[in-house]
Amino acid sequence: MEHAVNVELAYYRQLDLLAVTAADETAWQQSLAVYDLLHPLASERPRPRPSFTRFVLERHGYSLHRYMAHHLNPRAWAYWFGQRGILTPF
Q: Which candidate, 50, 49, 54, places its Cα nearest to that of 66?
């Protein structure tokens, strides 16, 4: 589990490599508005609100799932995915 936590932390640290713009902030605010409208309609397990960091990374093509699958061994991946993330649930 410690390895999965460290890999997930490394994913989120990638934000330091990006130049976050006002457009990123605006898009994130708009996504939260949509989330707030659709969340009560969710029939399955409710999903947490997206974090700004993950939203920006995904918006710039840095997929959390792809990153984790690439950096974890199959057993660690199965654990991490089964937990629906460790640091920030998805």
A: 54
What's the whole-model pTM score?
0.76
Tell me how far apart the alpha carbons of residues 70 and 14 are, in angstroms, rounded to a whole number: 15
The pLDDT value given to residue 27: 93
Concatenating the DSSP letter of every residue in 34-80 gives: HHHHHGGG--SSPPPPPPHHHHHHHHTT--HHHHHHHHS-HHHHHHH
What distance in Å separates the CA atoms of residue 59 and residue 86, rounded to the nearest whole number? 21
Residues 6+ apart with CB under 8 A from 73: none
